[in-house]
Design a protein that fits this description.
This protein has helices at 7-30, 37-44, 48-51, 58-83, 90-107, 109-116, 128-150, 157-162, 165-178, 184-205, 216-230, 239-242. It is an all-alpha fold and 267 residues long.
């Protein structure tokens, strides 16, 4: 039998969660620059000094919000990775992962904006717990690329030939910093995929697609498969088979796009 935490610890944990929920509400309504310990305290009926018992600074609060968001994203990606571990098609494994990423972003527009929207505050989000959760999310994408290269599904030799010395050095440094055992060309492929994925998501979430375009599901799938081909995916792709619905983490149902309620809040 698990021993329950002492009452004081439970109350402290509940207060920390209430502080973060209040800050998320401010973020959703007015953007990142609106978050302040004084404003959070006022909304909770506390004195500003009381909040310093839980968070040393505004920056620490923002880092915790980022850490929670990256943790949620990492959980979603890891669950998708586990669901498709035995899928023989590399393209289908990648598309399931990309769909899981989009599914998370559509359900967590405030958090997506916090992590990937424009930065209006100088807050280091790569340190401590926040950095660890960010690397956990990125590790799923790196593993996907490493597996595709290792099995011969992706050939990055054409990218290798295009790399200039300075960029190659930067990619090597990045790979070493992240502890990723793949070539500079494969890391360049990761960046191509990353920019395509976030370009598509940001245009959709922030309402920048032409108003005539409403079939975001198929458009996103098409973009994710196109970038896979561009980075050197070798097997032929049966579009109908690869784009068939895939189960989302935690459900036996195919992905359903949540009702779009307009652009995500500005950061």
């Amino acid at each position: 039998m698990n021993t329950p935490a002492p009452r004081r610890e439970r109350l402290r944990a509940a207060t920390i969660e209430e502080i973060k929920e209040t800050a998320r509400a401010q973020l959703a309504e007015h953007g990142l620059s609106s978050i302040s310990l004084r404003g959070v305290a006022r909304a909770m009926g506390l004195t500003p000094s009381a909040l310093y018992r839980y968070f040393d600074s505004h920056d620490e609060l923002v880092r915790e919000l980022c850490a929670d968001a990256f943790s949620s994203l990492a959980d979603e990606l890891e669950a998708s990775e586990a669901l498709t571990a035995h899928e023989p098609s590399g393209a289908r494994r990648w598309l399931a992962l990309a769909r899981a990423y989009r599914h998370w972003a559509l359900r967590h527009q405030v958090e997506y904006t916090l992590l990937f929207g424009p930065r209006t505050l100088d807050v280091d989000v790569k340190s401590a717990r926040c950095g660890a959760e960010m690397r956990r999310a990125l590790a799923v994408l790196f593993r996907c690329m490493a597996d595709q290269v290792a099995c011969g599904c992706v050939d990055t030799s054409h990218l290798e030939a295009q790399l200039q010395p300075e960029l190659r050095e930067e990619l090597v440094a990045w790979g070493q910093a992240e502890g990723v055992p793949i070539s500079p060309a494969a890391l360049a492929a990761c960046l191509s995929v990353w920019t395509s994925l976030h370009g598509a998501l940001s245009l959709e979430l922030f309402g920048h697609f032409p108003p005539q375009i409403t079939d975001f599901d198929d458009l996103y799938d098409m973009q994710m498969l196109n970038v896979l081909v561009r980075i050197g995916y070798q097997p032929s792709i049966d579009i109908a088979a690869v784009m068939a619905p895939t189960a989302l983490p935690g459900t036996d149902q195919p992905p359903i796009t949540p009702e779009h309620e307009g652009p995500a809040p500005a950061a």
